[in-house]
Design goal:
The complex is a heterodimer of chains A (about 375) and B (about 90). Chain A is of the alpha/beta class and about 375 residues long. Chain A has helices at about 10-30, 40-50, 55, 75-85, 110-115, 125-135, 150-165, 180-185, 200-205, 210-215, 230-245, 265-275, 305, 325, 360-365, 370-380, and strands spanning about 35-40, 60-70, 90-95, 120, 140-145, 170-175, 195-200, 220-225, 250, 275, 280, 285-290, 295. The longest helix of chain A is centred in the first third of the chain and has 19 residues, at about 10-30. The longest helix of chain B has 28 residues, at about 60-90. Chain B is elongated and about 60 Å long. Classes of the chains: A alpha/beta (about 375), B alpha+beta (about 90). At the A-B interface, α1, α6, α7, α9 and α11 of A face β4, β5 and α1 of B.
């Protein structure tokens, strides 16, 4: 496939591996601990594990897998609210497939579907709108998840509903924002990340400018990065070049898709429909200021939260979960006490085990589980 | 969740919709986010990144080529360096 195959070329990967290694060795001589580089986005985490990129890197580089998987970080209370909405016989709940298994306090959407709730998987929010037109006597709710990448699609679908006079369509809005969350990570006292791989598709919508604070205020290098293995490796090399030169700039490795200004029609649609929430709660990270959006009062009739008076439930994370520490790079996924045994992809307890984009699920799927658990047990004894 | 897939616009179907071919599968896609020129037909034959039924960005072929060329050069430079250091020994 064009724009995919050429960015998976093994020869190029080999070249990049060599270049990364030479530069990393040079930098390692000036430091007493490995460089920590965080990829924020779950899409990057997935590529890193799928293509074994960590195995290609020298020991002087440690990748920290960030919280950028919107399915993973959805707190239990929001899943419970979604199930509550879906249990209303008038409602058809529609959702992306990857949200189906996210555990609530008691059930996931897939459990609720098995118990009789009308929950349907769709590819696009526009499919939910079509369903609304076909079922005028039902209320069709779309479980709106995702970072800025996905916000234009849901905002434009609301605008279509308005233009077409469809009143039985609404969103249960759980969209989250990238920049406030990166800020919260940077402000965490035990956070020691040296450089950032920034999400390419969020940047495609918001542009380069919103990331400038990482270099201006925190003096950390950041590279906006595509999702193929060659993209990630090139981006690692660019970050090493900056670190070697003592620079902290925002660079764009993914120029074939990301324009400096972002996507104007998308941003306009988002600005019409959404406004920042004061706080939004994340599984594993707690409440973060301005880290979510809600539907503006003018569009209240498309807001399931306002229409059905729901969305205030708070349910604490399972107490033994160490997702927060994994996200901050303090521990590796397999060092969590629940990893593999109580918490695994078929029965996820914590956020990061939920979707294939979560760091724990990636370790579980692509790592040697028995070896990792044995290693943890040895460390515990030691 | 945030991933997209490249596809080629093969037919403009209306002011906000186009038929996009992704690996041989054709599907109607919303093009509001990429329809920024005065002539919608400029989008025909363009490659776009499709995310949940919406074309979100026109893929810039020149930039794609530049990215790849940069890595090619990097490989050559490493090879030259290796040869150079080999020559020294």
């Amino acid at each position: 496939m064009q724009y995919v195959d050429e960015f998976r070329d093994p020869k190029m990967a080999e070249n990049l591996t060599q270049s990364i290694k030479s530069l990393a060795d040079k930098i390692a001589k000036t430091r007493d601990k490995p460089l920590q580089i965080m990829e924020f986005c779950g899409g990057h985490t997935h590529t890193i594990f799928k293509f074994g990129i960590e195995q290609l890197l020298p020991d002087s580089i440690e990748l920290v897998h960030g919280p950028g998987c919107p399915v993973c970080v959805l707190p239990r209370g929001r899943v419970d609210d979604c199930i509550k909405l879906a249990s209303n016989p008038k409602v058809i709940m529609t959702t992306f497939g990857d949200a189906m298994r996210v555990p609530g306090a008691e059930q996931s959407l897939i459990d609720a579907k098995a118990s009789g709730a009308d929950i349907r998987m769709v590819y696009s929010p526009m499919d939910a709108l079509s369903l609304a037109k076909q079922n005028p006597d039902r209320e069709i709710i779309f479980f709106a998840l995702g970072f800025e990448t996905t916000m234009p699609s849901t905002a434009l679908t609301v605008l279509m509903a308005e233009a077409q006079g469809v009143d039985n369509f609404s969103l249960f809005c759980n969209h989250i924002t990238t920049v406030p969350t990166i800020k919260a990570i940077l402000d965490a006292p035990d956070m020691q990340i040296d450089a950032y791989i920034a999400p390419g598709h969020v940047s495609m919508v918001v542009g380069e400018e919103p990331f400038q604070f990482v270099s201006n205020r925190y003096q950390r290098p950041l590279v906006i990065t595509g999702f193929e293995p060659i993209d990630i490796m090139q981006s690692l090399y660019m970050l090493l070049q900056q670190l070697d030169q003592g620079e902290a700039k925002v660079e764009n490795q993914y120029k074939r898709v990301v324009g400096k200004e972002g996507n104007l029609p998308g941003l306009q649609a988002m600005a019409k429909i959404y406004e920042l929430r004061d706080f939004f709660e994340w599984r594993g990270l707690g409440s973060i200021e301005n880290s979510g959006v809600q539907i503006k009062a003018e569009y209240a009739k498309y807001d399931a939260e306002q229409k059905f008076n729901i969305g205030r439930a708070h349910v604490a994370d399972p107490s033994a979960c160490q997702c927060g520490e994994v996200i901050k790079g303090a521990i590796k996924p397999w060092q969590c006490k629940l990893f593999g045994s109580q918490c695994n992809p078929s029965n996820p307890m914590g956020a990061l085990m939920v979707s294939s984009e979560g760091a724990c699920a990636a370790y579980y799927s692509y790592g040697d589980i028995d070896q990792l658990i044995a290693l943890r047990n040895v460390n515990e004894v030691a | 969740m945030c991933l997209g897939i490249p596809g080629k616009i093969v037919e403009i179907q209306g002011s906000d919709t186009a038929l996009v071919n992704v690996s041989g599968i054709k599907r109607a896609v919303n093009i509001t986010c990429v329809n920024t020129s005065n002539n919608i037909h400029d989008l025909l034959d363009k490659w776009v990144l499709v995310h949940v039924g919406f074309a979100m960005s026109v893929i810039d072929d020149e930039e794609a080529a530049k990215t790849l060329a940069l890595i090619e050069n990097l490989g050559e430079m490493e090879e030259n360096l290796a040869e150079f250091s080999g020559a020294q020994n």
